[in-house]
């Protein structure tokens, strides 16, 4: 399986790492740290050196209860950084739910559209189709992150998430989007048990035939399981969740801690190769 990102192609025969670049002052994990273009560029270079295969740029926090950001403010945060990062030579993803932001980012040269609302706004799919870039379709029970946790109710969380992703992927492809990536939306309108069940049964999403992205990095459910309150210290739990996700078919991992994941995957892949050799 391959993911075609304009002039870049990612071979997904092995898991790939998407480095998180938050250009927001209020992100749950590293808010404000990379809010200037220079700081963003330095952090991006570090993630690429550590092994990031692509970078995901976001200018609006989507944590539960986060304050909304205007399109103009989001563009002010994201577009200068995007322009500064393009010469790095790695694919860049624009993480936005606003068509106005997506339009300018894609026109500048962003390689992937990552929409937490699952392309509910048809203008998003139209933009990805017009620019010939893939789109990440993520599940969230409602399109507003501020109220999503009030809707964390499912009869069968995996079945309902799967049905939503399948329907939205079908609409996107019909609209001309060249490829879609599926994201179960860990932590977005989900309880601890919902998150665990989705990761346990990730293979049911992978069976739909599209690349699956898993983004559990430093999230609250990791802290609930480990007792680690500080988001930046949830690295070990995050790596464990992501490795399990890889075993269930995840091909892309959205991570804050690139080096730790690259090292863990190197050992994971070596052990897998030894198993094949013994077989």
From TrEMBL:
Pathway(s) it belongs to: Cofactor biosynthesis; tetrahydrofolate biosynthesis; 7,8-dihydrofolate from 2-amino-4-hydroxy-6-hydroxymethyl-7,8-dihydropteridine diphosphate and 4-aminobenzoate: step 1/2
Top-level division of the source organism's lineage: Bacteria
One GO BP: tetrahydrofolate biosynthetic process
MF terms (GO), sorted A to Z: dihydropteroate synthase activity; metal ion binding
EC class name: transferase
This enzyme's EC code(s): 2.5.1.15
Protein name: Dihydropteroate synthase
The Pterin-binding domain, residue ranges: 15-266
Record carries keyword Cell inner membrane: no
Gene designation per UniProt: folP
A Pfam family: Pterin_bind
Gene3D superfamilies (alphabetical): Dihydropteroate synthase-like
Catalytic activity: (7,8-dihydropterin-6-yl)methyl diphosphate + 4-aminobenzoate = 7,8-dihydropteroate + diphosphate
């Amino acid at each position: 399986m391959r993911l075609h990102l304009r002039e870049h192609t990612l071979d997904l025969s092995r898991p790939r790492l998407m480095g998180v670049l938050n250009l927001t002052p209020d992100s749950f994990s590293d808010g404000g740290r990379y809010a200037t273009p220079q700081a963003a560029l330095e952090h991006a270079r570090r993630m690429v050196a550590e092994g990031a295969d692509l970078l995901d740029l976001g200018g609006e926090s989507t944590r539960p209860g986060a304050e909304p950001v205007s399109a103009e403010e989001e563009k002010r945060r994201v577009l200068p950084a995007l322009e500064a990062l393009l010469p790095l030579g790695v694919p860049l993803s624009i993480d936005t739910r606003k068509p106005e932001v997506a339009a300018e980012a894609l026109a500048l040269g962003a390689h992937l559209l990552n929409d937490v609302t699952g392309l509910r706004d048809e203008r998003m799919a139209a933009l990805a189709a017009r620019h010939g870039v893939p789109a990440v379709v993520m599940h969230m029970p409602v399109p507003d992150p501020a109220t999503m946790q009030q809707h964390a109710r499912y009869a069968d969380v995996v079945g309902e998430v799967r049905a939503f992703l399948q329907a939205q992927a079908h609409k996107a492809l019909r609209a001309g989007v060249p490829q879609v990536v599926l994201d179960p939306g860990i932590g977005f309108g989900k309880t601890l048990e919902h998150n665990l069940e989705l990761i346990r049964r990730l293979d049911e999403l992978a069976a739909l035939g599209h690349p699956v992205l898993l983004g559990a990095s430093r999230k609250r459910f990791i802290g609930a399981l480990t007792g680690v309150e500080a988001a930046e210290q949830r690295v070990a739990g995050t790596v464990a969740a992501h490795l399990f996700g890889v075993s269930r078919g995840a091909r892309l991992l959205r991570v804050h801690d690139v080096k730790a994941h690259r090292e863990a995957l190197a050992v994971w892949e070596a052990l897998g190769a030894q198993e094949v050799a013994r077989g």
